[in-house]
């Protein structure tokens, strides 16, 4: 196996980390606890009674769906970006086309971080839950994977692209 393909394979293995952290963070229920009220991405639970209460604080339906969409879409964008990187790296020989999935690999963690900031804006004070910390870790590791795969796909050389810019000869012609 060629070295650039081994590096892409290592990037895919690294890319599993933010996807796994994101999925685990999305499915766990303990995101944030404040004044005996437990908040997560989909509902708010009163810790004393165990029943579900309304999103009356800051979670209006448009903002709640925006936060949910940013978090779920961010994890999905990281997954699609990693798959697209592997597919384009094996099929396409143009280096610029190989860099297109980097847009998804940068937008995914950005969406996760923006969603977390909106979530934290609604629920103030300290007391982060494990899921909140996992989603922060997913965003940070997503950025690391995006940087790694950008370097790997930009450095891969194709046998027909061995020319460098230093070997280009410029011919000047003077017209009178």
Automatic annotation (TrEMBL):
Keywords: Membrane, Transmembrane, Transmembrane helix. The chain crosses the membrane at residues 7-27, 72-92, 99-119, 131-155. It comes from the Eukaryota. This is Uncharacterized protein. It comes from Adineta ricciae (Rotifer).
